[in-house]
Design a protein that fits this description.
Shape: elongated
CATH architecture of the largest domain: 3-Layer(aba) Sandwich
Distance between the termini: 72 Å
Largest sheet: 6 strands, mixed
CATH class of the largest domain: Alpha Beta
CATH superfamily of the largest domain: P-loop containing nucleotide triphosphate hydrolases
C-alpha cells in the first residue's frame, strides 16, 4: 500500500504568469507530507496538477515510475483520492449517495454496487463519523459536515494516495483536528501516502512528519521539520520575521511571527531595564516593557531558553550560561554590569531552584548600590520555589528596599509611556 510520487520539472502559468517554475520533489510510499508556503506559492496548483485537474505546461508526474498521463481516469482514481478545499452541493444527493461515488472507479459502466461496495461505504461513513447523516441531503449540511462527507468518499475510494487541498480552511479547530487525525490514521493503519496543502504551519507539524516548502512555484526546502521550518525559510517564503521553538506540551516545532526590530525601535529612548532570568514566565515581562519603549537586557539564561531567543531576535544584551551550570566569575561580573547599566531591575515570576539561587546575591549587590529592584508576584513565589529558600531570600530583598508588584501589568504604571520612570 502507499504510492511513490515523483514530480520533475513541473511548469504551469496562468495568462503568462508563472505559478509553478521547474518544481521538483519526490514523495515516497507511505509518506505523510504537508505542502507549505504563502498564498500564491503554488500549493493548490501543484495538487491540482497531481490530481489531473490541471495540465502542466511542461514537466512530468510519475506514479510508481509510470507517467500519470498514461493512466485513464478510473486507473488514476483507484490510485489517488482528492479532498478539495471547497465542496459545492449543486445536486440534492444524500450523504450515502455521495460516499458511494467513491466506488465508481471500481464499477463498469452499467454495473451496480454490490454488498461488498455497500459494506465499504458503511465502514467509510463510520470512520469519518457521518453514519448518522446517511439519509440527509448534502445541501443541508454545515461546511465541516460536508468536508467529513467528502473525506468519507475519499476513504471509500480506497486510494493508495490521498491529496488534501487545504482541507481545514474555514473550519473550527474541532473539525480541523478530526480531518487531519483521519488522514494520519489512514497513513498509519493502511500506509496511504498523504499530501496536504496546509496554510497553518503549527497545525501541520502536529500531524505530518515531512514537509515541502514552496516559494514562487519552486521547492525552497523539503524534509523533516527541523530542516524546513526555520526562521530564515519562513522569512524568505512568507516575508515575515519569525522565531521557532518547541511546544512545551508536545515538543513539536512551532512558529511564532514576531514583531521584529525596525529602524524606529533602534532609537528607543525609554528607561534601560534589566530582566532577571528567562523562560516562558519572563516573556510577558519582556514584551510589555518592549512595547513601553524600554531598552532591555536579559539574563542569565541558557542558549535554548525562550528569553535568550527573545534577546537574540531583538538584538538585546544578554548573559548566556551553559545549562545545568553556575555562573563563573566573568559571567557574574558581566551580569552585574548589565544591572549597573540599567535604570531598574525586574525579577519576573520565574521558578527558583538551587541553580539560580546565586542570582539573589547579584541582585542584592545592585540593590545595595542604589539600583531600583521590582519583584513581581511575591505571594506566588512558594509555588515556584523548588529550593525552599527563595521566598526567604526574596523577602530579604524587600527588607532592603525592593518593591513588590502583584502582577506583570503593574509595570506599565512604573515605566512612563513616553520613556523614563514614574516618580523618578
Amino acid at each position: 500500500m502507499g504510492l511513490n510520487i515523483e514530480v520533475h520539472g513541473l511548469k504551469l502559468a496562468y495568462d503568462a504568469q508563472p505559478v509553478l517554475e521547474d518544481t521538483n520533489f519526490t514523495v515516497d510510499r507511505g509518506d505523510l507530507v504537508a505542502l507549505l508556503g504563502a498564498n500564491g506559492a503554488g500549493k493548490s496548483t501543484l495538487l491540482r496538477c497531481i490530481s489531473r485537474i490541471l495540465k502542466p505546461n511542461a514537466g512530468s508526474i510519475l506514479l510508481e515510475g509510470q507517467e500519470l498521463d498514461r493512466l485513464n481516469s478510473k486507473e488514476a482514481a483507484r490510485k489517488m483520492a482528492v479532498v478539495p478545499q471547497e465542496t459545492t452541493a449543486d445536486f440534492d444527493f444524500t450523504v450515502e449517495d455521495i460516499v458511494m461515488m467513491g466506488r465508481f472507479p471500481y464499477l463498469s459502466r452499467f454495473q451496480k454496487e454490490d454488498s461488498k461496495d455497500r459494506e465499504i461505504v458503511k465502514r467509510s461513513m463510520e470512520m469519518t463519523g457521518v453514519s448518522h447523516l446517511a439519509e440527509r441531503s448534502i445541501a443541508t449540511l454545515s461546511g465541516g459536515e460536508k468536508q467529513r462527507v467528502i473525506m468519507a468518499r475519499a476513504v471509500c475510494q480506497q486510494p493508495e494516495a490521498l491529496l488534501l487541498d487545504e482541507p481545514t480552511a474555514n473550519l473550527d479547530i474541532g473539525y480541523q483536528s478530526m480531518l487531519l487525525e483521519l488522514a494520519t490514521r489512514l497513513n498509519r493503519e493502511q500506509k496511504v501516502t498523504v499530501i496536504a496543502a496546509i496554510h497553518d504551519i503549527n497545525l501541520a507539524v502536529h500531524h505530518f512528519n515531512r514537509f515541502i516548502l514552496l516559494s514562487g512555484g519552486r521547492v525552497m526546502a523539503a524534509g523533516r521539520a527541523e530542516a524546513v521550518i526555520t526562521p530564515e525559510n519562513i522569512r524568505k517564503s512568507y516575508g515575515v520575521p519569525a522565531t521557532t521553538y518547541r511546544h512545551p506540551l508536545h515538543g513539536v516545532l512551532q512558529v511564532s511571527v514576531v514583531r521584529g526590530p525596525n529602524p524606529e525601535e533602534s532609537h528607543k529612548d525609554g528607561p534601560v531595564v534589566h530582566v532577571i532570568g528567562g523562560g516562558e514566565e519572563a516573556l510577558p515581562v519582556l514584551e510589555l516593557l518592549s512595547q513601553q519603549g524600554c531598552r532591555l537586557s536579559v539574563g542569565p539564561v541558557s542558549a535554548q531558553d525562550s528569553g535568550c531567543r527573545f534577546a537574540h531576535f531583538h538584538s538585546l544584551p544578554v548573559v548566556i550560561v551553559p545549562p545545568f551550570t553556575s555562573m563563573n566569575g566573568a559571567l557574574k561580573e558581566e551580569h552585574l554590569q548589565l544591572m549597573r547599566d540599567s535604570d531598574l531591575v525586574v525579577v519576573p515570576p520565574i521558578p527558583f531552584g538551587e541553580g539560580n539561587l546565586p542570582l539573589f546575591e547579584e541582585v542584592e549587590t545592585a540593590l545595595d548600590e542604589g539600583k531600583p529592584v521590582y519583584i513581581i508576584d511575591l505571594e506566588g513565589a512558594d509555588q515556584r520555589d523548588y529550593s525552599g529558600k527563595a521566598r526567604q531570600m526574596l523577602e530579604g530583598l524587600v527588607k532592603k528596599g525592593a518593591i513588590v508588584m502583584e502582577a506583570i501589568e503593574d509595570l506599565a504604571a512604573v515605566v512612563c509611556p513616553g520613556g523614563g520612570l514614574e516618580n523618578e
